[in-house]
Amino acid sequence: MNIMLFHSTYGLRPAVLAAADRLRAAGHQVQVPDLFEGRTFDTVEDGMAFRDEVGRDELLRRAVLAAAPYSDQGLVYAGFSFGGSVAQHLALADAKARGLLLLHGTADLADDTMLDELPVQLHVADPDPFEPHDWLTAWYLRMRRAGADVEVHSYPGAGHLFTDPDLPDYDAEAAEQAWTVALGFLDSL
Prior knowledge:
alpha/beta
């Protein structure tokens, strides 16, 4: 499977590269674009401020340019938190998308979005301050109504970016469980 993996608002840090290596070790081809052009951040607030400064449209433009050379191959789009939002936007706009793997983040979608049974898997903390229950319920229903085949896996007590071993949110047990399920999802595509 060819995977386009997007980083969180912390930037392209070692944990994202380690995740890409984990996916490669499972037999997948993985591209990891740096939407922040080398900038990384120690706090989510600093990363979000940079994200807002650069702007959503520019970051999506960078993501589209990164994915364009590979999109004819039928990509699986994946991402961490903010990167999940980016991945969702690209997957919903790519008729050849093979799947969408969201780790810790989602995005809104237009009411007229139509998908042809796109396989989608979300891994999210429970509770998650960035993905509250009401939002997730509405997101799930809208994705299903659009035609996506959605699975949601929640991890009680885990922090928002629980798969990142370099952050305080890290939860080794939840991370290992998420990766096991995610790799099974990718193998099923």
